[in-house]
Amino acid sequence: NGVVLPLTTIYLDAQEGGRVEEKFVEDGAILKKGQPIMRLSNTDLELSLVNQETSVFNLLTQMQISRNAAQQNTISKLNQMADADNGYKEAERLYKLNKQLYEQKVIGSQEFKQSEIAYEYQVKRKKLQEQILRQDTVSVKQELDQARQSFDRTQNALDVMRRKVGDLIVRAPIDGQLTSLDAEIGQNKNKGERLGQVDATN
To answer: What is the distance between the alpha carbons of residues 200 and 180, in angstroms, rounded to a whole number?
Structure first.
């Protein structure tokens, strides 16, 4: 006479602590891999998940608001650039015209000097607007990159929290027979506590 032992035994330990709310099968049941065995509840974990989901939603909303504001700001700077460009072209045209007229002694030095000063001002204004636009482009890209990184970190934290809450449903790790189930409705189980075992049936 001998004792037949299963080739493989997987011990069921609580991945997360909680209260036993529901048992889907009883000791001795034949299980398929992934089949739910019991459900635990953990209000702290579940509340943390809700808070994390809210954080992701708020961050997503804030990103959209910031993106819209950045787009409006860029449009405003592009309009200012267009105004500066138009002012520069008009000042350049008038300066070149007055330069010819001054050389031909059609206009006086005062009138020519005014157009020259106006042209130099528009050249500086145009360069300044170009610099502002370049800085704005770099700044917007940095802000969007930082916002994306922050969102990714928050989303990753949410994914981890969802997995933790998902672990409150204890599932069969392999095809086999559930043995030594130690869990009753209402019991509190600590993280890592032994719940039972599943013996491979083949």
So the answer is: 14
Alpha carbon separation from 24 to 33, 149, 159, 163, 184 (Å, rounded): 14, 41, 26, 20, 11
Tokens of 199: 């013996």
How far lies 48's CA from each of 63, 68, 82, 90, in Å? 22, 30, 50, 62
Alpha-carbon Rg of the chain, whole angstroms? 36
User: What pTM was computed for the model?
Assistant: 0.67
How many Cα atoms are found within 13 Å in the side-chain-facing hemisphere of 82? 6
- Mean pLDDT for each consecutive 10-residue tract of the chain (202 residues)? 65 93 94 95 94 92 90 92 96 95 91 95 95 90 89 91 94 92 93 93 71
Q: Closest by alpha carbon to 193, among 170, 174, 177, 175?
A: 170
Instruction: Give the pairing of strands 36-41 and 169-171.
Output: antiparallel
